[in-house]
Amino acid sequence: MKRDSATDSNGSAKRARSYAVGGKELPSLGAPSAKPRSQTYVTAGQVVVISEVLEVEDPLTEVQELSAHLDRSRGVLLSSSYEYPGRYGQWSLGFVDPPVCLEAWSRKFRISALNCRGRPFLPTLLEALQATPAVAAVQKVGSDKIEGEVKQTEGYFAEEDRSKQPSVFSVVRAIVNIFESHEDSHLGLYGAFGYDLAFQFENIKLHKDRDPSQRDLVMYIPDNMLIINHQMQSAWRMKYDFAFAAGGKILSTKGMHDKGPEVHFKPRTQMPPGKDRRELKPGEFAKQVDVAKEKFKRGDLFEAVLSQTFREPCKARPSEVFHCLQRRNPSPYGFLMNLGEEEYLVGASPEMFVRVESNLKGLRVETCPISGTIRRGKDALEDAENIKTILADPKEESEITMCTDVDRNDKSRICEHGSVQVIGRRQIELYSKLIHTVDHVEGYLRPEFDAIDAFLVHTWAVTVCGAPKAWAMQFVEEMEPSQRCWYGASVGHVAFDGHLNTGLTLRTVRIKEGVAEVRAGATLLFDSVPESEEKETELKASACLNAVRNPHDVPSEVPRAPSLVQTQENHRVVLIDFEDSFVHTLANYIRQTGATVTTVRHTQAEHMLAAAKPDLVVLSPGPGRPTDFGVSKHIERLLTLGCRIFGVCLGLQSIVEHFGGRLGQLPLPMHGKPTEVQVREPGTIFKTLPSSFVVARYHSLYGLRPLPECLLETATVMPGLSSGDGIEPDKPILMGIQHKTLPIAAVQFHPESILTSPELGVQMLVNAFSL
């Protein structure tokens, strides 16, 4: 690594967390800004900070080494591996062996020096906390710890001042105030916030026993950080030294080693006694949904988010689980945290909790509530259908509407009036197994509020508890069988320059003493189907559970359709092209059956058919009418040769006319339109297909009834369905025919279109060889 030798002077103006490109201000998208220079500066609490910036030659190797180090040492690795325009960029930031740790158990807290470099921090921190009105008691314990307790809220508080109440965040704010400086956007507190922190603000009656050793907060101050901005292809390391004036002495970290205690991860192959792999038996979560629906019916709740926990013995190291999730489940909030005490958090969260950045307008707070979930399809086409399904679902729309209305209410406590805006509505985000609908909401803080206030007024997001929020949190407390611990809270960074970036603790593996826990929830409404909601929790948990069980399996981003067996090898097909724009896609589908295909223009077909001796001849689609191409003569010639014939679109119309039928013209043309068809008589072409399915139509002409006596009607537009073609629904038009005695069949639709399932389209062509 090389040192950046330039040094800035003190006293620079407040630095905005945004970029100016071509004179236009752009948000950072959560990514670390451009590499800074080495510098020395003095914080608001009179701490001297010396930062040294080093170039990183091989960032990928450094990330691998850092993550492996986290298996045995305390620290944090944050990684955004998901991009979304205007919302997320790709970046990584991490450290091990931080000098200082803040932990909390309800209102009790402890600040620990984790190595000798942490000891110089303690006198200054103790002095500041002794002067903090919200702290009831604080004292130094030995040479390495400060312990204290925060006061209970007393007297009257206006709701607008909710975030100013005494809480553990009073300690967080005191630490931020000591180190406040706009000279550095990286230095800050990094770690995890627990769900029970909300009870310091919301008067919730607790129904469950709490593990007294379970921490509600673990935050670190780092002094050696690896930082990567993947989009800018830039990586650097920040090394810090600190000098404190305390008790008439200057205490400095300069020259001290940074090695902290190591505790190697202990894998587990069996569940410990008394721990079940599944917290709720199958069907029990669905019963809880029924209870919630009664609450909705009475008007006690609008929506609620209940969750359940799944457990596995964790044989893989936390770093292996992390890299597995990074490969299989790219997300904007990926993280690996060693919290000490044999506890790790490994996650790939899709959802921002709160992000605060300064720009020319002020302090901008934004959130991206996710509500609305559907499974990924087996390919892009099925993804598109699933996206249409979720966007058309009124239950899903109601779900996210309520979430965003509550979120806007949270911001309205502390934001400038008129500044709270929805800047993205029901936008689609694609993840490895799920598709989500997401809103994007912003506001600008009033001058008397800061990033910590913004964090606290959203505690916790409506998307993880429900609405009205206080009643929903009480319902969660009464219904769920265990303490949430970290689930539904957040992870991230409270920066000393005033910005904040946090993600919700979702899609997370909590590893404690070798047991991996994955908690997953579902947003419940009165319209919820209990069994479906239970399946949703199982689906959400599946990616993390699979990463724990099989971290080294090679993933596929999205499951792909299985390839068809090459059933028609050594078969020859002639595809007669009637000047169509889809003929080569049709040929591609035929080749997928294993057959050899020769495509020939209709003007050349006569000269090569006799010599080719094909096993099947396909009459392609085309513009105009069959008579424009003299298709009937081709059919006559093929009958003389004894060929199997399969017609597509114009091919069907040609067969109808050849055998004496008539064609009609649709009142409204159907070009690139989807239609559901019903199989009337499977015959040969539809014998292995569903009784109904969606196809693509590109036609204006169609076969009229009555059909010639020799032709059998095999498929039609779904009866009673208005397909947009202007034909009365009770007189569905022909979509498929087959000759009663000759090896001839045809379809009016296009089996090769993206609107027709590829598996069904290819299977029809396979079946055509059996004519």
Automatic annotation (TrEMBL):
The keyword rRNA processing does not apply. Pfam families: Anth_synt_I_N (PF04715), Chorismate_bind (PF00425), GATase (PF00117). Residues 75-234 form the Anthranilate synthase component I N-terminal domain. One of its GO terms (molecular function) is 4-amino-4-deoxychorismate synthase activity. InterPro entries: ADC_synthase (IPR005801), Anth_synth_I-like (IPR019999), Anth_synth_I_N (IPR006805), Chorismate_C (IPR015890), Class_I_gatase-like (IPR029062), GATASE (IPR017926), TrpE-G_bact (IPR010112), TrpG/PapA_dom (IPR006221). Residues 574-757 form the Glutamine amidotransferase domain. It catalyses: chorismate + L-glutamine = 4-amino-4-deoxychorismate + L-glutamate. Pathway: Cofactor biosynthesis; tetrahydrofolate biosynthesis; 4-aminobenzoate from chorismate: step 1/2. Keywords: Folate biosynthesis, Glutamine amidotransferase. One of its GO terms (biological process) is L-tryptophan biosynthetic process. CDD domains: GATase1_Anthranilate_Synthase. Residues 284-540 form the Chorismate-utilising enzyme C-terminal domain. The keyword Transmembrane helix does not apply. Residues 1-37, 257-279 are annotated as: Disordered. PANTHER family: AMINOBENZOATE/ANTHRANILATE SYNTHASE, ANTHRANILATE SYNTHASE COMPONENT 1. This is p-aminobenzoic acid synthase. It comes from Effrenium voratum. The lineage of its organism: Eukaryota, Sar, Alveolata, Dinophyceae, Suessiales.
